[in-house]
Amino acid sequence: MVLVLNGVIQDERPINTHALFLEHPVYRETATQLLSIPTKTVGAPGLLYVCQREMAAVAPHDRNVNIIGSDDATTCIIVVVRHSGSGAIALAHLDGNGTDEAVSAMVARVQELAFGYPEGRIELQLIGGFSDPQGYAEDLFSNIMQSFHKHPLEIDLTQSCVGELNTIVREEINWPIIYGVGVNIKTGEIFPATFPDKGPDLQLRMARHFTGSHQVLDIYDSAVGMLRIGPFNYDPLRGVDLWLAQSDEFILKHLSTSPDVEPPHFAMQVRATLRYIQDNQFPAVTVFRNNNPHYFRRDETTGCWSPVRY
């Protein structure tokens, strides 16, 4: 019973996005402000990119990260939790899997990073998800609200650019307006963004979506300033050869929750991931030898992630 909307503690969570915007018009105003910011293309140097079903938390004084962000969200929602006093930030790209655990982990990580800063509120921002025909994003919004509402801490919703507010109609088809956001970790500024370079081990990280892994993975070790992938395992994907033999249109239709509005690289990215799964059916054996994570350290010359060799 501790979700705060427009400065007021709520007894009940909003039943849907429409009710939220009707009862609290301030969220229309903040969404309009976010939507008015031009989309920035963010390069790899200083970027901590968070894939679908991943989260990461970082403090403003982290020397390895300038921007944390995620994109390619259609029916997914990007969740940002920030401590207003310390500036500590956690960001997740949620699709409905592992929501309760991810919400608890995000708040806990921000609290850890904010230790020693007694002043400040926990602020929540939701971006992405559009008015899709199947209502996937609406269900996800409800799922996320429920998870935050039952959290014991007071959590202040300051941005909700989701659903109808993140929807534009083109040729009678609903499209998302914002597909991704970045957050400047020094200032907390949030802005629409696209990320051509999504970081290392991308196919390995994406393989989890297609193989039934429901956990939201924490990918950043802020204590040592390193990107950390795994270890994890997944089940072999049956019929992967058949999927790879299909057309891009078939892949788009059957492996997307929003085939009409996916970014242009969707089918290419899915193919690369399916080929990775085909080559690495048991990652616990072939990828994470000795059960060790893959660590990446920021290269001081290029600003990009480079593998740590042991």
UniProtKB/TrEMBL annotation:
<dbReference type="InterPro" id="IPR026750">
    <property type="entry name" value="NTAN1"/>
</dbReference>
<dbReference type="GO" id="GO:0006511">
    <property type="term" value="P:ubiquitin-dependent protein catabolic process"/>
</dbReference>
<protein>
    <recommendedName>
        <fullName>Protein N-terminal asparagine amidohydrolase</fullName>
    </recommendedName>
</protein>
<dbReference type="GO" id="GO:0008418">
    <property type="term" value="F:protein-N-terminal asparagine amidohydrolase activity"/>
</dbReference>
<dbReference type="Pfam" id="PF14736">
    <property type="entry name" value="N_Asn_amidohyd"/>
</dbReference>
<dbReference type="GO" id="GO:0005634">
    <property type="term" value="C:nucleus"/>
</dbReference>
